Amino acid sequence: MKKHAIEAMAGLVVVCAALYGAYRFGVTRGTQSAQTSAAPGAEAALKAGDTDPRTGKKILYWHDPMVPGQRFDKPGKSPFMDMQLVPVYADGAGGGSGVTVDSHVAQNLGIRTAEVKSGRLGAVLQAPGNVAIDERSVRVIQARTNAFVQQVALRATLDPVRRGQPLATLYSPDWVAAQEEFLAVSRMAAGEHLGDLRGAARARMLQAGMTPDQVRAVESSGKLQPNLAIVSPVDGLVTEVGVREGMTVSPGMTLFRLADLSQVWVIAEIPAGQAGAIRPGVGARVQPGGAADAIAGKVEVILPDVNPATRTVKARIVLPNKGRQLLPGMFVTVSFDSGAGKDALLIPAESVIRTGQRNIVMVDAGKAGFVATEIKTGREAEGMVEVLDGLKPGQKVVTSGQFLLDSEASLRGTAARMSTAPAAPAVPAGEHEGTGRIEAVNGAESVTISHGPIPSAQWGAMTMDFAAPPTGLPKGLKAGDNIRFRFHLDSDGVARLSSVEPAASAQGSRQ
């Protein structure tokens, strides 16, 4: 009996000792935790480059995990969200925007990077276009007298034609009469008035519509030429045929319409939003389909015409057409060289994540992992994008797998927000003073104020709601008033006004 009692007493002593040890351990850890998280003023005193006493790590900067591109040198409240800024440490452990990926995992995910380099964009803008006939080269062949069509050499449109090639053969009574008169005068005996008569007869043949070449043919042969051919004055193609064999033509009737293809127009369709960068005289390269070489030219004119269906502006380019490489109706690609030849910081276009409001790239930060960085982009051509701000030469951006990394960074930022306990505002105790403009009076409970920076509270310029003073809002306040106000932060972190007065009266009272 005594033996069992002794064993029971010994067991009770052991349990009590264990409970006392656990109690002492909990008290010690709680004291250390309270000391670590004490006084937000200690965190407020930190700056970029300092060592965080809670983690023993060097702080690079502070940021909002949801807006990782904006960096801050001091802690405080985010100007974008209702939360405290999160520190980013030198080893990438803090903050939440850096994503660390093992090399084997990166290889399996197909993550590839490209170096940010300086280079030149070959072209700023590429636009579709089509080849058209140079309207300045169009020639119209018309009848100058009544005639009968004996023969038509070219019967279809788009038939090629050479300079001097017969188009049609005509029989004209007026031409025959003029020729007979000329030949009769030529057979007369020589006399002092023979030269004048011969010249008058020759002029009549020209007035009847015969060409100088046809008149010379009558003079050289000395015979009547009843059927005369109409020949092509250009090398090109037939765009209109207005006669057929056996027809009777009258003066002014169009027989043929010809186009010279030694020079053509290219009409490029430029989006209206990008047409401002294209001016007359800007160089352009026209690339026909297939393996044909590009042809260099210049913009002649920007046509004052906007296509209402496609919202595009037309630019006309005049090009030589040796060997008839370009044909009317052909589709081509036009590359404009405006701004080419200037050095720029370039990255692949596939590396840019476009959200609609911002452009983001994932930067390889070494041990810190992949960090989402906001950039400002400029021109884009040939698969490359010009970077105006946000990157430096030598950095590496992710070109494949960046969407996976960006989503992971966003999830980490959200997790950091959810796991971070609401911290007390890093501002000195007491009241703060500022100036601003009333945006809205929300009844008697609060007022919305757009204010400038408030250094004492470590706030930047923003628009926010302020709770009314204990005595209520002053009467007469309305939207648009410029005011000077004082406020303090209550125990719940709510900004509560202490006093509000017009800015003008406040300045007068101070004077």
List keywords for this structure.
alpha+beta; single chain; Elongation Factor Tu (Ef-tu), domain 3; 511 residues; 22% helix
Major sheet? 7 strands, antiparallel
> Which structural class best describes the helix and strand composition?
alpha+beta
First-residue to last-residue Cα separation:
95 Å
Query: What count of helical segments does DSSP give?
Result: 8
- Radius of gyration over all CA atoms, rounded: 44 Å
Average pLDDT over all residues: 77
Gross morphology is elongated
Count every beta strand, where a strand is a DSSP E run of 2 or more residues.
31
Which percent band covers the strand fraction?
A: 35-45%
Low-confidence stretches: 25-41, 92-97, 414-429, 505-511
Helix content: 10-25%
